[in-house]
């Protein structure tokens, strides 16, 4: 959807030869436990701490930088 980009006044990002690619690799069936050790927030008072969740981002590629997530 381009609606969020339109709302923010950004150009739509089309998949075309020559355009920069930004993507997310997502594993919808992956199970993982949200804990204090893997919490990226400055706050540690989440009701989801020590909860098993389904679905996980494995990697992102944005602005020519690859980031992998454990």
Count all strands and give the number.
3
Structural class by SSE content: mainly beta
Strand-residue proportion:
35-45%
Query: What Rg, in angstroms, do the CA atoms define?
Result: 16 Å
Biggest sheet details: 3 strands, antiparallel
Shape: elongated
Helix fraction? Answer: under 10%
Low-pLDDT segments: none
Q: How is the largest sheet built, in terms of strand order?
A: 1-2-3
| H and E order | HEEE
| Total helical elements | 1
- How far apart, in Å, are the first and last alpha carbons? 28 Å
Rounded average pLDDT = 89
Description of the structure:
The chain is mainly β. Helix content is 7%, strand content 40%. The protein has one helix spanning 3-7; strands at residues 23-34, 51-62, 65-68. A hairpin with a 2-residue loop joins strand 2 (51-62) and strand 3. The protein is elongated and about 45 Å long. The two termini are 28 Å apart. The mean pLDDT is 89.
Give me a quick take on this structure.
The chain is mainly β and 70 residues long. Helix content is 7%, strand content 40%.
Labels describing this entry:
mainly beta, single chain, 3 strands, 70 residues, 3-stranded antiparallel sheet
List the helices and strands and how they pair.
Elements: H1 3-7, E1 23-34, E2 51-62, E3 65-68
